[in-house]
Write a structure and sequence with these properties.
Shape: globular
Distance between the termini: 52 Å
Helix content: 25-40%
Order of helices and strands: EHHHEHEHEHEHEHEEEEHEE
Length: 266
């Protein structure tokens, strides 16, 4: 079976796989930490870096905060635009662009805050690429603007290796359809990289339809000390560091996901 591009194949099932995520909670916390304010007309503008199918962007818009999402995957951006809600309290927009196009794609726009959920930085091909991405995002901040980024905790990976998993998902409104995701992680401790091998099987018993695809996704994991060094190289200062969704709580090796609140270094 051919291995397909992860981002393009997952666009169709992205919302199914992550439907249980507390999008509203993510956005409320980000709004508080980034000191974003809703208005009429909207006075603050936030950038979602690696927006996927746009759920967080739409949630910001529903709160009255203007939001723009950027993602390297054309298929994700198509899905995001199809989901755009005309009743949003503030304008939202979606931009396609990979690392080489970010500056041009954002057209010189500056933002009151930048968010990056779903460990987007860990998908970069190297620590140097992480630094370059952070420098680009820092340039897009207005004076006093902040970044909130989620990352994978390498200390947790070293403490407890990820294991193969099999998960079944039922599609809302289609009780005869079931999507199964098989994930097999392969850890490379020397390169600090986890290769996630996926097989997705989509069965629709009512129509007798069966589709299957495989894809591979590399996730680079760093330790908190290394993340701090990456941020320093990018000219950013760490304002807060905490297990995802729990400001004020110390990080341990049991916490798989870390959030960092960052500002331009003074």
């Amino acid at each position: 079976m051919p291995v397909a591009d992860y981002h393009e194949q997952f666009a169709a099932v992205y919302d199914l796989f992550y439907g249980a995520r507390d999008i509203g909670g993510d956005v409320r916390l980000a709004t508080e930490l980034l000191d974003l304010r809703a208005g009429d007309p909207p006075s603050h503008h936030v950038l979602d870096f690696g927006c996927g199918t746009g759920s967080h962007v739409l949630a910001f818009g529903a709160m009255g905060i203007r939001a723009t999402g950027i993602d390297r995957s054309p298929a994700m951006i198509v899905r995001a635009r199809c989901k755009s809600a005309p009743a949003a309290a503030a304008p939202v927009a979606f931009v396609e662009g990979g690392p080489r196009e970010w500056d041009a794609a954002l057209n010189g726009e500056r933002y009151n805050g930048v968010v990056s959920f779903f460990n987007v930085l860990n998908c970069m091909e190297s620590p140097a690429a992480m630094v370059d991405a952070l420098k680009t995002l820092a340039k897009r901040l207005m004076n006093g603007g902040r970044l909130l980024v989620d990352v994978w905790n390498g200390a947790a990976v070293y403490s407890d290796d990820p294991r193969p998993t099999v998960r079944d998902f039922v599609v809302t409104g289609e009780p005869d359809r079931k999507v199964t995701r098989i994930t097999v992680p392969v850890i490379d401790r020397v390169r600090q990289c986890c290769r996630l091998q996926y097989r997705v099987v989509d069965v629709d018993r009512r129509n007798g339809r069966f589709t299957e695809h495989e894809s591979v996704h590399d996730v680079r994991f760093l330790t908190p000390v290394q993340y701090r060094h990456i941020f320093e190289l990018a000219g950013l200062a760490v304002l807060n560091e905490f297990p995802k969704g729990r400001p004020g709580v110390p990080i341990t090796e049991a916490d798989w996901y870390i959030s960092y609140l960052l500002s331009g270094a003074t």
